[in-house]
Design a protein that fits this description.
The structure is a homodimer of 477-residue chains.
Chain A: E1 3-4, H1 6-11, E2 18-29, E3 33-37, E4 45-48, H2 56-60, E5 67-76, E6 84-95, H3 111-116, H4 125-147, E7 151-152, E8 158-159, E9 171-173, E10 199-201, H5 206-216, E11 218-226, E12 239-248, H6 252-273, H7 275-290, H8 302-311, E13 315-318, H9 319-327, H10 330-333, H11 350-361, E14 365-371, E15 387-395, E16 399-406, H12 411-421, H13 429-436, E17 442-448, H14 449-457
Parallel strand pairs in A: 1-2, 4-6, 7-11, 13-14
Antiparallel strand pairs in A: 2-3, 2-5, 3-4, 5-6, 8-10, 9-10, 11-12, 12-17, 14-15, 15-16, 16-17
Helix pairs in contact in A: 4-6, 4-7, 4-14, 6-8
Chain lengths: 477, 477
């Protein structure tokens, strides 16, 4: 007999048919009702055991976490909230789960406890829902770009380039620790290392993606990136997945359009394709919020927030306008900001971004045309000589979710900026080549995938939206 | 006016309409015909310049590699092999390309030269076709799994586990070279390193994927993996992308079915969706083959090979049968194998795999039930006590493209094997937990994505199917 998934059976109306299913026991109550889950959906199927005719020893082995194989008859369910159930005719224990030892019991566990058991936490409703949404969201990303003529590019993870400038890097080497060979001058002899040079883990695939955009037109990356920063926050990971589209002949306006359309499209995809998981997460979010002090509670529910983003235009505001708003804002005047906004040129902190998004505009905001002094060397200088064509997309509860720019396409201006940064031109010879040969306006952005998953699932800590989080002092599993 | 892509225009029949397009000049001949490409397709659109009414200075700047913006009228083409062309009314040079300096001229370049210019090689027909096919193949992978109920799992890239056992690893650290702090006992004090322990780049996500399969049922990974092996061959990369599905309640037969169905499905996808690129690569392949000695030539063309794999069953052969065939084969008897096959238990070399696939069966082959002694610790021991439920899928011209197995689900047997390998149980506590709590039969495989791209594109060297290859002594860009 074909084994069906729980998701298939719950949608089925083949009443009185014999069916087979395999999964794990979530709960077993009244010596009779098994709530069975196989990961195909957040919903369990109820399997009703004829306990009077079942061996007691077998009944005792039906415990939370046990793997079982069940055959029986699909019938209309008597209980409410479920359409079908299985009257069990055959039950086999595939793998026991000793209730005295199994860590994932049907009760509330602390998030920290679950992180320590990251290999098992996906067996809970919350984490299985989060990880299915994460998977669907990943697919939505690929689908969006592929259907819009983008080519997926795998930029290198190990990089010999140290000019990316986006943050602290991890060293990659095959030298034994403290046994790297030295040159005659007493320096580390990297020519003897695996790649014959110093190498690090990438902090961004942007520069390499640009080389592909200048040939294939529209490209995107979606891969792991790394920051060796000692940030123990709910918003930072040392290893995270980033999405970086890059498009030739596209200016900053096109870039803003693309980022908005992209985010709306992938969120609409999960709203359409992850209904059960999101319904569960929506309830979970409401419960979490209800335990916060009134002032900190989200004004919208999870599903409401997602629909709001999909249905409304992002507000586009120049940095200069934003500074005006912030300078004249109540919290600034009442000195409630930790970093008061006094003058044009200040870098915006999380508190300012949150004020603009959550209090002032009450919708996603795209800030653009930032001061050149606080942005990266590769961003296109505006004619005013002091701002660059940068943009950040700011989201409620998350802060910066996208950072992007039109890239400096003029060889002379780019060289000047590189020199001013103290980067050697020969380090970026290939990047400069793009400006030497057939240069053109082009733009792109980076989106931290985990922040998007956080937004879509309502999870407060970024460590809970990636299977095995890497953070300072933590690389278990 | 909306700017159209070359792909859109070539499919368009809006004759006598005004159109706009941006792209790069591939060739410019007779001071009149621009072959324009924007990366959206391998095909160029011909743009006809009214050279008598065009400034000579401007004409001189229309060189190979230059970025141009063109407006004009779409008309039926006079030339053969193309349906439409553009009569140029406006031409703007966006970025010049000095013909004395631009490395990518319209002539045959050596593959080695192009590798050294990996940032520009994607501007050639061959590499743009390969990279578009690679992108489509990536999407086909996600599409196949998502449509079949699998969840995408991002297993960690930086791993604290050193028991994966699939090969030499790269160290990841934030210690300055030769300046790692020591403990009182004079050992490296990894507690002071970023993660508080020794960490490496992953060689496989399988063990972590198993934890997710035992909760979500069907999962797959698709991410970068690393081998620090000094292999300077046309088949090895230090950084490559791997696909690893893992399925609960699936045995080795199911695993063989899955691998065959998966490969056929993704190849069928590119046959359907990359017709122009594959037609070009098919011709290229034929040309390359024609330059080889008769005996080394492929018996089939590229498209023919792809269709053959999609349309025919893979031959399933046990290791024991394969050894019999090899022992009695002509090359073995005539001592033509570098490694003669004398007895059961021998590890198969590339020459043996190629004989089976290319000479004996003349189709893809799945070998299964290998001797336990030559396979990994986590593979399910058969009842004979000497073979394991392992499988390898062997492809013509490529060799091993898939390696997989049913996993050992019995705690006691797994512990025995781990101990026999000298791995400490506490290193794999979480992996053993899967066998303690609700264990079940499960299986999976790994497929090196670049080998699949090689097969799909007919490229002979694996360095030519990934944008920026990482190999010993090479991490440029």
């Amino acid at each position: 007999m074909t084994v069906s998934s729980v998701a298939e059976l719950l949608k089925s109306d083949l009443f009185l048919q014999e069916v087979a299913v395999k999964g794990w026991v979530r709960t077993f109550r009244s010596n009779r009702f098994i709530a069975l889950n196989d990961g195909s959906t957040i919903n369990n199927i109820q399997c009703v055991v004829d306990f009077e005719n079942t061996d007691e020893e077998l009944l005792r082995r039906i415990t939370t976490g046990a793997a079982v194989s069940i055959k029986g008859t699909l019938v209309e369910s008597q209980g409410k909230g479920q359409s079908v159930e299985i009257q069990v005719s055959e039950l086999e224990i595939l793998g026991d789960s000793n209730p005295d030892e199994y860590p994932i019991q049907p009760k509330k566990h602390s998030m920290e406890f679950l992180r320590e058991n990251a290999h098992l936490r996906v067996r809970t409703n919350t984490f299985s829902a989060v990880m299915r949404v994460r998977s669907a969201l990943s697919f939505a990303v690929h689908k969006y770009f592929q259907e819009n003529g983008f080519n997926y590019v795998n930029t290198p993870i190990i990089t010999g380039s140290d000019a990316e400038g986006a943050g602290e890097m991890f060293r990659v080497s095959t030298f034994e620790a403290n046994k790297a060979p030295l040159t005659e001058e007493g320096e580390i002899d990297y020519s003897q290392d695996f790649f014959g040079k110093e190498t690090n883990l990438t902090v961004s695939g942007q520069l390499e993606a640009e080389t592909y955009a200048m040939a294939l037109g529209k490209v995107y990356t979606f891969g792991p990136t790394f920051r060796a920063e000692n940030s123990n926050t709910t918003r930072h990971l040392a290893e995270f997945w980033m999405i970086e589209p890059e498009v030739a002949f596209m200016d900053l306006d096109g870039n803003m359009d693309l980022s908005e359309d992209f985010i709306k499209s992938v969120l609409a995809y999960v709203l359409e394709n992850c209904k059960d998981d999101l319904a569960f997460l929506d309830q979970r979010f409401a419960k979490e919020e209800s335990q916060k002090p009134q002032a900190q509670r989200s004004e919208m529910g999870l599903l409401e927030k997602l629909r709001f983003v999909v249905d409304n235009n992002f507000k586009r505001v120049s940095y200069t306008e934003a500074i005006d708003i912030l300078r004249n804002s109540k919290p600034n005047k009442k000195k409630k900001f930790q970093f008061p906004i006094n003058e044009w040129g200040a870098d915006l902190q999380s508190e300012h971004e949150r004020f603009l998004v959550e209090k002032h505009f009450k919708c996603p905001v795209i800030l653009f045309d930032y001061p050149a002094s606080i942005k990266a060397f590769y961003m296109r200088l505006n004619d005013d000589g002091k701002t660059v064509r940068a943009m950040d997309v700011l989201f409620p509860g998350i802060g910066e979710i996208v950072g992007g720019s039109q890239r400096e396409e003029r060889l002379d201006v780019l060289k000047e900026k590189i020199n001013a940064m103290g980067i050697e031109e020969k380090e970026l010879w290939w990047y400069l080549d793009l400006r030497k040969f057939g240069t053109a306006v082009h733009s792109g952005f980076g989106l931290g995938f985990e922040r998007l998953v956080q937004f879509a699932t309502g999870m407060g800590n970024i460590r809970d939206v990636i299977p095995f989080p890497r953070t300072p002092q933590n690389a278990e599993f």
